Amino acid sequence: MSVEKYHYAVGRRKTSTAQVRLYSGKGDNIVNGKKLEEFCAIALDAKRILTPLTVTNTENDYHFNADVKGGGTTGQISAIKLGI
Questions:
Q1: With 70 as the cut, is the pLDDT of residue 1 above it?
Q2: What pLDDT is recorded for position 3?
């Protein structure tokens, strides 16, 4: 069994908390066990989550797995973004 290395961070916004694992390489972005596109009902929300990777021009170099709890949609999106 191969264990993939990752960087771990916690992002918090209002009452939302996101535990984010950032992996090297291209892969699926997962939020609460769902693909990012399934988690975000609006495409603009997915774009907001990916802002840190877009700004640093590393969207093809990393993928993430996030578990987010608490708060509403806006707080959860911001918590994930801050965790990345």
A1: no
A2: 73
- The C-alpha atoms of residue 18 and residue 36 are separated, in whole angstroms, by 14
CA distance 34 to 44: 17
Q: Environment class of residue 23 by beta-carbon count within 10 Å: exposed (0-12), middle (13-18) or buried (19+)?
A: middle
Q: Model pTM greater than 0.85?
A: yes
Structure tokens belonging to residue 23:
């992996």
- Location of structure tokens 């949609």: 73
